[in-house]
Each structure stands twice: as C-alpha cells, then as structure tokens.
C-alpha cells in the first residue's frame, strides 16, 4: 500500500502523539505504584516513536522485534542513535515481555524508575531524526 504524503505525515504525527501519551501513562502508573504497567508503557512510548521514525524513512517492519532490529541496523550502526539507545530499546522490550508474560513476577520501583529519563532521552533522539515537513 502506498501512502500519500499527507497520509504518511498524519500517521507519523499520530504515532509521535501516541508515544508521548504512553510516556505519560508510564508516569501515571508509576505514581500509582504499578511498576510492571509503567515498564510496559515505557516500552510502548519507545516503540511508537520508533515506528514513527520508520514510517518517516519509508521503512516497513512487520513485528516488534523487526522494529527493534531495524532501529539497530539503520540508526544505531550508522551512528544516528547511540549504542546505549539501541540497548535501551531492547531492554525496554524485554522488560515489557517479562512484566506482561512471566508468572509470579512484578517489576519494582527501584528497577523501573531509572528508565524514565533514559526513555525520554531516547524519544527525543528519535524525534530529532523525524523530518516532519
């Protein structure tokens, strides 16, 4: 499916908005002490911004793992994002997986809190790579 410039721009803007909304949801859940939900929302904040970046560059990914792989291959390896950014994105995905699917497991404040500022920095770094016209 080929998107018009206007459709592509609308999708990118929507995903950026969804990213920041997910980041806010992470903060809200943290305030309520729901650390596994906060970790999940941090991942989705990064995922939505990454998917906006991929749409902006005309790149299609078919899965969450695909998005993570492409971010590494196209942006980290080329020096557009740092290696730490790539590791953070992967770590957030793993945190979400554990929090959502592992039995008898919950994230704690001590484990999740350090990821808020790092995730915000990652979102801003990806946003800078998006060329909204």
> What pattern of helices and strands is seen along the backbone?
HHHHHH
- Taking pLDDT < 50 over at least 5 consecutive residues as the criterion, the unreliable ranges are none
Determine the CATH superfamily: Nucleotidyltransferases  domain 2
**What do the pLDDT scores average to?**
95
Q: Kindly state the number of beta strands.
A: 0
Question: What do we call the CATH topology?
Answer: Four Helix Bundle (Hemerythrin (Met), subunit A)
Overall morphology: globular
Number of contiguous helices = 6
Return the CATH architecture.
Answer: Up-down Bundle
What would you say this structure looks like, in words?
There is one protein chain. With 133 residues, the chain is mostly helical. It has one domain (5-129): Four Helix Bundle (Hemerythrin (Met), subunit A) (Up-down Bundle). The chain is built from six helices and no strands. α1 (5-31) packs antiparallel against α6 (115-129) and α2 runs parallel beside α6 (115-129). The longest helix is centred in the first third of the chain and has 27 residues, at 5-31. The chain is globular, with a radius of gyration of 15 Å.
């Amino acid at each position: 499916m080929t998107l018009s410039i206007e459709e592509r721009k609308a999708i990118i803007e929507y995903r950026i908005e969804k990213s920041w909304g997910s980041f806010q949801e992470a903060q809200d859940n943290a305030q309520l002490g729901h650390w596994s939900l906060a970790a999940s929302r941090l991942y989705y904040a990064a995922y939505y911004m990454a998917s906006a970046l991929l749409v902006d560059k005309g790149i299609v990914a078919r899965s969450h793992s695909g998005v993570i792989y492409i971010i590494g291959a196209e942006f980290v390896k080329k020096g557009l994002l740092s290696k730490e950014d790539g590791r953070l994105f992967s770590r957030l995905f793993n945190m979400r997986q554990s929090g959502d699917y592992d039995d008898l497991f919950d994230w704690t404040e001590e484990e999740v809190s350090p990821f808020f500022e790092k995730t915000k920095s990652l979102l801003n770094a990806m946003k800078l790579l998006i060329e909204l016209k």
